[in-house]
Amino acid sequence: MAAKARSAWQRWGLRGTAPLAALVLLAAFMVPANAAPYGGGVENTGLFQLEGDTTPTACPPNDWAGLYNAFQADNTTPPCGSDGFKFVADGVGSADSTYWSGGGSKDAYDPALGPWMWAPNDVSPDKNDIDNAFAAAYHLGGGTSATDLTRFLFFGADRFNTSGDAQMGFQFLQADTCLAGPVGTTSAGDPACPAGTPNQTANAGKFVDPTTGDPVHHTNGDVLALVNFNNGGTLGLSAVFVWSGGATPPDGSGHYVQTLTGNGAAADCKTITPPDNFCSTSNTGNLTGEPVWPYTAKNQKGKTITSYTPSAFIEGGINLNAIPNSGSCFPSFLAETRSSAGPSSGLGLTAQLKDLAFGKFELCGSGITTTPKDGSGGTIDSGGLFIGSGGSVKATDSADLIVSGIDTWSGTIKFFLCGPFDTSSTATCDGTTGQTPDQVGTQIGTDAQGAVNQDTPMPFLSQQATITDPGRYCWRAEFTSPTPGVPDATDGTATECFIVNKVQTTISTRQFVYPQDKVVVDLPSAGTLTGKITFRLFDTAANCGADDGTATSTGLLYNEGPTDMTGAAPQAATTNNTTVAVTSDTTVYWHVVYDSTDSSQIGSESACTESTTVSYAGNDSNITLP
Predict the structure, then answer these.
(1) 3-class SS of residue 127
(2) What is the pLDDT of residue 326?
(3) Which of 448, 377, 440, 446 lies closest to 411 in space, CA to CA?
(4) Which pLDDT score is estimated for 33?
(5) How many helices (H) and strands (E) are present in the chain, helices listed first?
(6) CA 9, CA 247: separation in Å to the nearest integer?
(7) CB-based burial, 454-488: b 16+ in 10 Å, e otherwise
(8) Residue 380: pLDDT over 60
């Protein structure tokens, strides 16, 4: 039975875990369209505590300190039963190299069109300087069925100085994003683009795609959470927004639409009442001994502060199923601050942003593994394929696609064939342009024939390629994803290569025998023979001995004669049998009769003791004999 394309929420786990100097990387989540509703609030799921502190230090119950410690002990799996967790030490002051820059760096604007900009210059007041940021994801329900799941996102951060009101935001983007640079001589650190990202000089300071180097756009379904609070930890207005109205593919059109709202104590996780799909809270008192991670606070009256004072820490949670049209995967995460006029200040999106904590957590992923096959999808043996008698041979490619972290997706698998290369070549079909020999290849089949989604059985077989020339050939398969957050994937490695051989001739044989006989008729002394000679071939000695000379004699296989035999004795005659062949192991017997027409002579005959025994070995029985 063919397996369906694999995409399971169970695959959500830590990927590419980075040192603590990295920025917050948020898990990528799927919100199923028909998920069964969760009846309780985000603050009392039993999965994670939202009580305005970080303890206990070990799970369960689950809180930030416990997740942090478990992650430090084992950073290969999500800690404390979570679906994902990330901690980012953003740093403060000179230790922080990522701040918002420029007038277009506002929540209301598309990243590419604003444009959003980052810089290492500290433009953040102390009260808006993020020290650490963190996020975790959990789910309730469902066994293995995505439609039974309710998923939750929990987020938090701490700040350098608590001497003023502030607003903090948490933004989750479906575009895979990195920070282009360096800006001046400073890179963005962990969230910086890889060295191989193109166009970094031209786009230095922008938020770009790590593959193309082009500035990214907002995608329908991006999520933003905003929370206002004061220096005593009192909460003000808060809300969750979803980017809507944009084009597909994204082009910068659209805008954030407010979907969930909270106000003061009514939205505080410690006091909230339904509807409670989103809440936040802050510490209103000193939290002695917290946090368990390194924390830098501004000295107060000459005293070194190593634990949380009121409003140093903020946390919150969102029931993702309660957000209409929320995105599927969020590979990019932003924690941000801006100045606030107090807890009752509005939720406008045009304020200039201050500090930036940025990171990625690629829980939505894709991978494709391909294997060359013969024309019917069967295995190609080590000797390769052979061009047939018709001058061609068929070949296909088998692609096994895995998409993880999301339950509903679509895309296209394109197949390309390169070759023929010399059989000793090490060239592949990796898609690199400008190579000799060509390594881009010819597309086999159409885009429509390569359409796939979460229900497509895997492995997925390409259309047939017709090959007429011998040599080395290599396939490449490319998965292109229009689903936001799900990356493209390709396989054009050497395992995709195979050999096509010249037409191979074959030889087989099957023996057969036309039994022949020769007779000599003589007289006791010189004289002349006048008569007729007849050759008769029988299947057994008994039938031969019982020959009655008629055409219906039992066991008669062949008759030749009577033929005239005249002349001085001795006279010889030979058969010319071309019609009766012996094709299997057997013994046949000759009966030869000479009838004299000379009245002075008597005819003669053989005694059926002359035989021919035929034995065969190594014959090809498929060969048709005459």
Answers:
(1) helix
(2) 83
(3) 448
(4) 38
(5) 2, 35
(6) 27
(7) bebebbbbbebbebeebbbbbbbbbbebebbbbbe
(8) yes
pTM score over 0.85: no
Using alpha carbons, select from 148, 24, 158 the residue that is nearest to residue 85.
24
How many beta carbons lie within 10 A of that of residue 417, not counting itself?
A: 21
* Residue tagged 């010319």 (tokens): 576
Collapsing DSSP states into helix, strand and coil, what is residue 403? strand
As a whole number, mean pLDDT of residues 84-98 equals 88
Tokens 């607003």 identify what position? 167
Lowest average pLDDT, out of 4-13, 237-246, 357-366, 601-610, goes to 4-13
- Give the integer Cα–Cα distance in Å for 463 and 414: 10
Distance CA 600, CA 612 (A): 34
The candidate with the shortest Cα–Cα distance to 361, out of 204, 112, 137, is 137
485 and 499 in contact (C-beta within 8 Å)?
no
The pLDDT value given to residue 342: 53
Token pair of 369, please?
């593994």
| Coil/strand/helix, residue 581 | coil
Sorted by where each begins, the domain ranges of the chain are: 17-361, 366-501, 518-614
> Which CATH fold would you assign to the domain 366-501?
Immunoglobulin-like (2.60.40)
User: Is the Cβ–Cβ distance between 269 and 279 less than 8 Å?
Assistant: yes
Closest residue by Cα to residue 372 from 500, 496, 499, 476: 496
What single DSSP character describes residue 191? T
Give the model's pLDDT for residue 363: 65
User: In this structure, are strands 393-404 and 465-467 parallel, antiparallel, or unpaired?
Assistant: antiparallel
User: What is the Cα gyration radius of the chain?
Assistant: 44
Angle of CA points 3, 7, 10, to nearest 5°: 115
Q: How far is CA 299 from CA 24, 127, 161, in A?
A: 25, 13, 9
Judge whether 342 and 309 are in contact, CB under 8 Å.
no
Check if the beta carbon of residue 85 is closer than 8 Å to that of residue 65. no
Nearest CA to 363 out of 136, 190, 43 is that of: 136
DSSP 294-332: ------BTTB---SBPTTSEEEEEEEGGGSTT--S---E
Q: What is the DSSP letter of 83?
A: S
